[in-house]
Design a protein that fits this description.
Length: 80
């Protein structure tokens, strides 16, 4: 089996400077738990609901003023 056989070809990506409110709304709209983060057409991280809960909600930070960059997981493994 090849990756292309099981991958989702059309994905939404976030910019690291988007707010977490934007990220959470997109996750809710698409019924997803994670989204890739891209800057200048390069994958720079992933943001998950867990990232938002631990790095923002648990620290009483606001989703409207916190950026995706501040909460995302920057070390992402990927394949072509």
């Amino acid at each position: 089996m090849k990756v292309r056989d099981v991958m989702t070809p059309d994905i939404e990506v976030l910019n690291p400077d988007d707010t977490l409110r934007t990220a959470a709304q997109l996750m809710a709209d698409l019924d997803l738990e994670a989204l890739p983060v891209s800057e200048n057409h390069h994958l720079t991280g992933m943001i998950t609901g867990r990232d938002i809960a631990i790095r923002v909600v648990a620290q009483s930070r606001g989703a409207a003023e916190t950026t995706v960059r501040e909460a995302m997981s920057p070390d992402v493994l990927y394949c072509f």
